TrEMBL record:
InterPro entries linked: Bact_2-comp_sensor_kinase, HATPase_C_sf, Sig_transdc_His_kin_internal
Keyword Lipid biosynthesis found: no
Residues of the Signal transduction histidine kinase internal region domain: 165-238
UniProt entry tagged with the keyword Membrane: yes
One GO cellular component, as annotated: membrane
Sorted UniProt keywords: Kinase, Membrane, Transferase, Transmembrane, Transmembrane helix
Originating organism: Pedobacter duraquae
Transmembrane domains' residue ranges: 5-24, 44-69, 81-98, 120-145
Molecular-function GO term, any one: phosphorelay sensor kinase activity
Name used for this protein in its record: Histidine kinase
Amino acid sequence: MKKKYVVSIHILVWIMIWLNDFLPKFIGNTSAAFTFHQPGSVPLIHYALVSLGYLISNIVVFYTIAYVIAPAFLKKQWLRASLFLFLLILFIPVYRFFAEYKVMLPLLGYDNYFGKIPDAYWYIQNSILYTVYSCVTWALIYFVIKEWYHNNKRKRELEKEKIAAELSFLRSQVNPHFLFNAMNDIYSLTLTKSDEAPGAVLKLSELLRYMLREGTGNLAPLEREIDYLSNVVELWQIGEKGSSFVDFKVSGLITNQQIAPLILINFVENAFKHGVTREALNPVHIEIDVDQLGLSFLIFNKKNTNLKDNTGGIGLANVKRRLELIYPDSHDLEISDNADTFTVKLRIEWKR
């Protein structure tokens, strides 16, 4: 909550306390301590000023305890806490005497002791105990609530920072293996002066631009994410010199939807790395279906049993963790790892 709103709430609460203190007394004219009113004086103002005089003392005590003494005790700053507690105990009767005998009695006609002169010890004790009864308990309750609120706020902020740092780290782990292969393939195309070389360079530049710009944010346009995947597929097929078979389909209306960037690439890279891509009858099947509520992603590939390493490595663990952090309650991931096939079904609900 912004500081100006907190200050406004505090001021409003104190005004309400002030009004609640003197208005009922004024309306019922129940304060017998008013011995006289000066000619032309307004009783409402007298009641209001007397109440304000006592309220000022309570305000000073309340905030001194809530913001100075209690925090000092909590931090074990015994000297600071003791010093301010002593000054507060000294302040209460001194202020009370000044307010009652130098302002309220001569200027407002308010005599709290009906012409009597109270015993000094009783007066000091009564002033302190009255103030303690009035606001010290509330000050301590307020301090406890304030500390609880700020501690929880700090925990939430630390958790957000931790999640942001973890997401940044996970994004930095996006497998660069494909990029190196793509650059090598483009280099080979340029050596043979292939007509596909300029288009491949353009696709690689678009791919890198997306990774460096949108790829570092929390969300990116869905259209750009799909374009990125399309470029990855086309670059892979160029590198495989036309002998790679990928069935890439996109359906649904794509407008201004947003998605976590680079959230699908690990599944695609995993299929290319560990799957069979050179059989026309068993293409890598990638399907993206977009609707009003979210996105459905399906990728299916036949396993390449000739590879010694037929696991997903850190890539799948990476994307699982990112999904947990970004879409904790709005995604459903199903991975089917069978003897001959590998299937991923992912459903992401749009953030609202």
